[in-house]
């Protein structure tokens, strides 16, 4: 059972951290897809996307 003070604190954090929540949600969905649903082809596609993303990140340094 959650106290009223804890509920208020949770709501305050959620209101102040909407972007973090979005990132946490996307990360969680990506992990679930990879671990439970992805085929070998999906993983190969993701691997290529990750490689491209790393390259873009290194280019901006």
Looking at this protein, list some descriptive labels.
61 residues, 3 helices
For the largest beta-sheet, the strand count, sense and barrel status come to:
none
Give me the oligomer status: single chain
User: Could you report the average pLDDT, rounded to the nearest whole number?
Assistant: 96
Number of strands: 0
Order of helices and strands: HHH
In percent terms, what proportion of residues is strand?
under 5%
**Number of separate structural domains:** 1
Share in helix:
over 70%
Number of discrete helical segments: 3
End-to-end distance, in Å? 48 Å
Compute the CA-based radius of gyration: 18 Å
The poorly predicted ranges are none
What's the helix and strand layout?
Blueprint: H1 4-16, H2 18-37, H3 40-59
Short note summarizing the structure:
The protein is mostly helical. It contains three helices and no strands.
How would you describe this structure to a colleague?
The chain has three helices and no strands. It is elongated, with a radius of gyration of 18 Å. It has 61 residues and is mainly alpha-helical. The mean pLDDT is 96. The chain has one domain. The termini are far apart. The chain has helices at 4-16, 18-37, 40-59.
């Amino acid at each position: 059972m959650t106290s009223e003070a804890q509920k208020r604190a949770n709501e305050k954090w959620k209101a102040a951290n909407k972007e973090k929540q979005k990132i946490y949600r996307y990360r969680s969905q990506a992990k679930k897809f990879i671990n439970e649903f992805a085929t070998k082809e999906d993983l190969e596609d993701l691997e290529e996307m990750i490689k491209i993303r790393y390259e873009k990140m290194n280019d901006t340094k």
